[in-house]
Amino acid sequence: MENQTCKKCGGKEFAEGTDYMPIKTSKMALTGANKIFTFCLDCGEVDSIRIENTEIFRK
Ligand SMILES: [Zn+2]
Asked: What is the pTM assigned to this prediction?
């Protein structure tokens, strides 16, 4: 992992967490994707949010 620095507190320790996001596709099928958060271990500031399996968003 590259050197990240928290823009809020200057902390250098980060961790990742995920959150499940339900999505309705155009075909009305219910599916979902994981959001992956990278956040500062000191103050909790979220550095980035990434979406897993973006394939499902393609038409
Ligand atoms: Zn921080």
From this structure: 0.74
Is 31 inside any structural domain? yes
Range of the domain at 23: 14-57
Q: Show the tokens assigned to 18.
A: 């995920």
Q: How far is the CA of 39 from the centre of ligand 1 (A)?
A: 8
Cα–Cα distance for residue pair 38/44, rounded to 1 Å:
9
Q: What one-character DSSP code corresponds to residue 43? A: T
Write the pLDDT tens digit of every residue in 4-44: 899 999 999 999 999 998 987 777 678 889 999 999 999 99
Tell me the CA–centroid distance for residue 59 and ligand 1, in Å. Answer: 38
Task: Tell me the CA–centroid distance for residue 33 and ligand 1, in Å.
Answer: 26
Q: Is residue 8 assigned to a domain?
A: no
Q: Report the separation in Å between the CA atom of 5 and the middle of ligand 1, taken as the mean of its atom positions.
A: 8
